Design the sequence.
């Protein structure tokens, strides 16, 4: 088959002043950002790959989006996949795939784009074009970090329609946010996220295009939409869809900034720090965590919210090697939680934080600090105090506790803990993070299988059966 030379890509490479080898090097740097430091990822490309792309071969998977990201940085403007001559094939009226990371865009347009892609029948292939990038994690003094979906300096012009938005509409969005969040906590991010995205993409987007009874109502609706976008991001994160989660987190952060909801901005920055920590981007995680506890994001929050911000900040400090700061932040988080009044309602519906959550995050911080005994103690406290409404997080904690017990040589205890994890999974939890805990349990038990230890064999076989049902 004769291929047509990709003149669009050749022209962009010329504009960038790159040779084929230089383009390959820039691509490899951008691709490395989306992987954990201990993940070797796929093979690096060389100049021959770039030559083939210019010659008319279409790169596969997320490669077009990675190349668009590299060119956007070089040229200091948005370079889309379509502009490079790699438009993703789509059905009639279907989206061509999400835009690469780049300069500002209207938040409502980004919401529409994310919704179309997230709900598209071919979402798997379309989402392959999104990459997680540390380039969007730098945070400025305000609540709007440079990102692929940053808002323009002034609120965008709203499309007028006949929908009049009042306080009651805001209340309904918040009630449904609470309902979606409760399902997430009980069953994991794999349950109900499609319905949430559909609601955000249609009903909530229409409300944001409506006419407001008062400026205060506008800000409250933007805050409610921000929290719903955040929740969609958190559920995507829990499902292992990290690049998509990053897009929703960033969108939520910008909407919260436009609504001047500073505590919610801190809450979302904290989630982004959590994600960056799990992916191994420790410097970026610390910058995000520190931004979450600055100024009105921290001072405007309730004591319970401040405790959550503080404990993730502590974990980020520990990962950065700042032991003294981590211990100090842990103590402050404990004091903040102790000052929380159980009778005072929290302003954000997606917000659940208590003793069990504090113990879980404290344990993860102690693990980083090398205090394995302390981590086991705190994971155990989290397991004992976690309520039935938080089954997903309970399962994740059991996974961490079993791994810590195994590392401490307490094999039988670890197997009993992982047995509890598998019991939880069999109750219908759909969580990528919990599934990874099962994968880790099987991996850690694998070297002991030949010893024919009854409890090791039993748990390993249960883990195999469970994971085989997922494929």
Sequence:
């Amino acid at each position: 088959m004769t291929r047509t030379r990709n003149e669009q890509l050749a022209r962009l490479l010329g504009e960038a002043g790159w040779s084929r080898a230089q383009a390959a090097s820039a691509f490899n740097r951008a691709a490395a950002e989306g992987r954990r430091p201990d993940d070797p990822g796929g093979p690096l490309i060389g100049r021959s790959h770039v030559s083939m792309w210019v010659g008319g071969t279409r790169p596969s998977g997320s490669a077009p989006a990675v190349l668009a990201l590299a060119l956007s940085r070089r040229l200091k403007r948005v370079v889309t996949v379509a502009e490079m001559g790699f438009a993703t094939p789509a059905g009639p009226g279907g989206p061509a795939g999400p835009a690469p990371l780049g300069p500002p865009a209207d938040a409502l347009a980004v919401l529409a784009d994310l919704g179309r892609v997230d709900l598209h029948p071919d979402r798997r292939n379309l989402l392959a074009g999104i990459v997680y990038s540390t380039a969007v994690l730098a945070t400025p003094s305000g609540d709007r970090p440079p990102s692929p979906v940053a808002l323009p300096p002034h609120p965008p012009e709203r499309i007028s329609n006949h929908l009049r938005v009042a306080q009651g509409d805001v209340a309904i969005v918040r009630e449904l946010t609470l309902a979606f969040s409760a399902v997430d906590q009980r069953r994991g991010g794999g349950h109900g996220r499609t319905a949430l995205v559909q609601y955000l993409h249609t009903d909530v987007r229409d409300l944001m295009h409506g006419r407001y009874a008062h400026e205060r109502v506008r800000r409250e609706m933007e805050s409610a939409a921000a929290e719903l976008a955040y929740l969609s991001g958190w559920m995507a994160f829990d499902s292992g869809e990290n690049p998509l989660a990053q897009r929703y987190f960033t969108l939520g952060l910008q909407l919260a900034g436009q609504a001047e909801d500073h505590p919610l901005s801190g809450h979302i920055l904290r989630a982004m720090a959590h994600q960056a920590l799990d992916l191994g981007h420790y410097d970026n995680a610390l910058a995000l965590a520190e931004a979450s506890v600055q100024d009105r994001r921290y001072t405007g929050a309730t004591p319970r919210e401040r405790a959550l911000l503080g404990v993730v900040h502590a974990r980020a400090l520990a990962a950065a090697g700042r032991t003294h700061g981590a211990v100090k932040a842990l103590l402050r988080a404990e004091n903040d939680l102790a000052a929380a009044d159980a009778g005072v309602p929290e302003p954000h519906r997606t917000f659940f934080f208590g003793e069990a959550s504090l113990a879980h995050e404290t344990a993860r911080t102690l693990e980083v600090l090398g205090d394995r005994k302390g981590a086991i103690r705190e994971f155990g406290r989290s397991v004992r105090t976690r309520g039935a409404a938080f089954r997903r997080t309970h399962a994740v904690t059991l996974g961490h506790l079993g791994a810590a017990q195994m590392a401490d040589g307490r094999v039988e205890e670890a197997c009993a803990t992982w047995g509890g994890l598998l019991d939880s999974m069999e109750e219908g939890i759909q969580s990528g993070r919990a599934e990874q805990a099962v994968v880790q349990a099987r991996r850690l038990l694998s070297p002991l299988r030949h010893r024919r230890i009854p409890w090791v064999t039993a748990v390993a076989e249960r883990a195999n059966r469970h994971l085989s049902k997922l494929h």
